[in-house]
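Q: Given only this backbone (231 positions), what sequence would you predict?
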């Protein structure tokens, strides 16, 4: 299985296992130039659905990582994990409580395959924003402060600015990027063409696209890959 190095990625395709995935689409995604596929979603995700997606993606040659949304749907099956903590969540449960439960109920976690992500959720109308009751009305300097805490205090390797379904504010992403020294900055939200990918790639290290392949087709996915890399 390909080595997973999130710090080296510039483009990720994120697939929601609560949706459909054909062999043809999986193979096209793998050949698009995206650096990795992340299997994860907020609602309706089960271990069985995640395993179904993994069975389709395995063998395509693309690095595949699982991003669980709660302890009930953590599945590795030989894949590495991106595990979020939502820094601006309204409940401490999404900062550390869910993680505590995961450790409490699962024996012998292989921490060598775990890549922690510090989420800063910016869209109040998104599923993740509603679920975590995220405090999304924050200015660029506040987002930067969260990022600096993640990077310099908690030493988390990934800071993820998540607008989830809507295109975000480049000033926020730039402020976050300026605030970190070591962490890799992910940006996700509303990237569905070359221009948006190119703009956000000016400030973030890695662009995350969601439903582009399903909703706009492979040409659009290719354009986001090109935009992410034309920096």
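A: Predicted residues:
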């Amino acid at each position: 299985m390909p080595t997973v190095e999130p710090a080296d990625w510039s483009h990720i395709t994120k697939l929601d296992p609560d949706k459909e995935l054909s062999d043809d689409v999986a193979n096209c995604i793998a050949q698009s130039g995206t650096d990795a596929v992340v299997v994860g979603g907020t609602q309706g995700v089960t271990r069985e659905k995640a395993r179904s997606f993994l069975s389709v993606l395995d063998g395509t040659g693309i690095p595949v990582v699982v991003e669980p949304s709660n302890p009930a749907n953590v599945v590795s099956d030989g894949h590495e994990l991106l595990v979020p903590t939502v820094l601006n969540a309204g409940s401490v449960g999404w900062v550390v409580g869910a993680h505590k439960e995961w450790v409490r109920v699962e024996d012998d976690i292989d921490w060598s395959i775990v890549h922690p992500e510090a989420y800063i959720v910016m869209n109040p109308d998104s599923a993740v924003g509603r679920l975590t009751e995220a405090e999304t009305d924050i200015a660029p300097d506040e987002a930067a402060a969260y990022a600096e805490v993640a990077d310099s205090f908690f030493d988390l390797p990934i800071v993820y600015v998540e607008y989830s379904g809507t295109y975000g504010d480049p000033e926020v992403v730039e402020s976050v990027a300026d605030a970190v020294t070591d962490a890799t900055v992910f940006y996700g939200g509303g990237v569905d063409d070359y221009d948006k990918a190119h703009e956000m790639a000016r400030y973030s290290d890695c662009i995350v696209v969601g439903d582009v392949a399903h909703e706009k087709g492979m040409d659009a996915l290719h354009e986001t890959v090109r935009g992410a890399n034309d920096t």
